[in-house]
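Quick one:
INPUT:
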């Protein structure tokens, strides 16, 4: 989301070195799961976006379910 007065992001974070290929929100657990071309899967808690888990794959990750 954006600050209405400045039109700038309220929160910004870089967590992947490659492009993000998939985002999955698990509402009942309050988690955000992302995977990337850099071969990482990162699980973050919502709404504070603290990293809960990082998984390093041997190759690009295209999808999480």
């Amino acid at each position: 989301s954006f600050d209405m007065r400045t039109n700038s992001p309220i929160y910004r974070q870089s967590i992947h070195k490659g492009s993000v290929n998939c985002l999955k929100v698990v509402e009942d657990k309050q988690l955000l799961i992302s995977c990337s071309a850099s071969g990482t899967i990162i699980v973050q808690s919502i709404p504070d976006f603290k990293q809960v888990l990082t998984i390093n794959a041997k190759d690009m990750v295209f999808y999480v379910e």
